[in-house]
Amino acid sequence: MIEEADLLQxxxxxxxxxxxxxxxxxxxxxxxxxxxRNIVKLHADADDVLQNTFIKxxxxxxNFKGDSKLYSxxxxxxxxxxxxxxxxxxxxxxxxxxxxxxxxxxNLASDVYFEGDAIQLKLQKAIATLPEKQQLVFNMKYxxxxxxxxxxxxxxxxxGALKASYHLAAKKIEAYLxxx
Length: 180
Fold this sequence. Notes:
The chain has helices at residues 4-12, 17-40, 43-60, 70-93, 97-108, 118-128, 132-143, 148-155, 159-179. It is mainly α. Helix 2 packs across helix 4 and helix 3 (43-60) packs across helix 4. It starts with a helix and ends with a helix.
């Protein structure tokens, strides 16, 4: 596997960029897809956001300063693109972001790419009741097992705040699952 520093150097090279970008795609496409999918819920929406994310990464790779890990930077872009997508969708449908989430969850059962069962649907409904930040933290920790140190880079928040958010989210989800 190619080292991140070498990949970054190739990505910033005009002659090696396309080849390096294909490598980047193969390394991170699936992980970013699932990160996005956990936020936007539906496969078709996740595909659109993933495409926009990689376009943004390609166009802005020269602006990456190396202050964080490359994948942290890409996750931040994917997170922001997902939130922007949800905000635009809510505006287009003239509903709240919470209603967009509920619509997506209600459509999950008919999404041919959703492999979950009734319990998974109930968990998704519980997650949707959380504030946006707690949703992000819970999804990143629970589904992707991202370390708090990496999450801190991605979300630009202290590890302590992230641990507190996760703990609160888990308690709220537990309460939801118990009462519904």
